[in-house]
Amino acid sequence: MNKQNFNEELLGFLDASPTPFHATLNMSMMLENAGFIKLDERQKWKLKEGKKYFVMRNDSSVIAFTYPKDKNYTIVGAHTDSPNIKLKPKPVTKEHGVVKFGVEPYGGLLLNPWFDRDLSLAGRVSYLDSKNVIQHVLINVKKAIAIIPSLAIHLDENANKERTVNKQTDISPILTTNDDFEFDEFLKLQLEKLGIQDVKALYANELSFYDTANASYVGLNDDFIASARLDNLLSCYVGLLSICNVDDDKPMMFIASDHEEVGSESTSGASGSFLENTLRRMYNDYEDYMQMIRGSILISADNAHAIHPNFPYKHDANHAPHINKGTVIKINANQRYASNSTTISRFMNVANAVNEPYQEFVTRSDMGCGSTIGPLTATRLGIDTLDVGLPTLAMHSIRELCGSDDAHSLYKIILGFSK
């Protein structure tokens, strides 16, 4: 796939995936179109050599794999979740002439960019039907239904000097001036738009606000891609396209886990059992399982901090990634990243073989270093692991920025591992 087609499909994937639930659904449909067979964790698996499969958990995490004779897998790991603001269970407040929603920040998001944006709502809703069966459905309102207005500078003379945001009181989106608004009726209307009339009772929901602005090219020569949720749908897309285009006789696996932004500790997160459970069912003989673990490599793909041209002092001068200069190899002496000299060398060797650039990133020694699913998975499974990422600006903002060259470059490197 050439870079232009790759990026055009990337933009569509980003727009169609406002939540981890939608991203996982979209990936599952793409996998089915590529010939992958869907598995159910609740049923007995009867895997056949030469086939390819995928399995989902919690509607928000997915694992796909080929199943050839060769057990030396290239595994690409990413995460489906992004920082956002989530709706509280009883969200409605009516005061001061408006109806507003109570929300809770998810992950380490930049709050200031959420002001004055056209916001919509998406996620999963659970309800009871007339047969007393609990059903789960994804909704996406799409229409801009809310906004978080800034306080005018006339009322905050320090706004351009210092601006802190109170997570409880300052970020409630306003929806309407109509005091007759009822949340349950709003949800029922969204279900009716999906053709669902049989709703006996509404139960729980997991809904998030998102910016309705579409992903787009930015720059004089379309140098950049601007979008919400680049961290980490960008890596999800790269891993997904890689496994969909690898030959069936090549051992490759792709895992996209939920909840990385809040520590990965859940049934569908990287600290949970999803990947290990899947691998053990693929190879239920312990000797086969251990041969696969020790013969495979995990490429943990998450975004990397590109050097900010207005704040260059935030980076180590010799390890400052540039946008459109290639994939970033992440290194940390204290094992916040799982890369070591052996896995780094393997990645460099493949990148050189396919003529794709790469860079190395080390956090300034006087600054804290984030972590990824890499060390978590390496610790749990004992698999050789490498942490890489695509250089990004404005990470964890409502709209992030990456290069239009880098994702396609990583895609070619990952395919190179199967040659």
From TrEMBL:
GO cellular component terms given for this protein: cytoplasm
Key words, A-Z: Aminopeptidase, Hydrolase, Metal-binding, Metalloprotease, Protease, Zinc
Example of a GO MF term: aminopeptidase activity
Domain of life: Bacteria
Pfam family, one: Peptidase_M18
One Gene Ontology term from the biological process aspect of the record: proteolysis
Cofactor annotation: Zn(2+)
EC number in record: 3.4.11.-
Gene3D superfamilies: Aminopeptidase i, Domain 2 (2.30.250.10), Zn peptidases (3.40.630.10)
Enzyme class: hydrolase
Keyword Secreted: no
Family: Belongs to the peptidase M18 family.
Protein name per Swiss-Prot or TrEMBL: M18 family aminopeptidase
The species this protein was found in: Psychromonas ingrahamii (strain DSM 17664 / CCUG 51855 / 37)
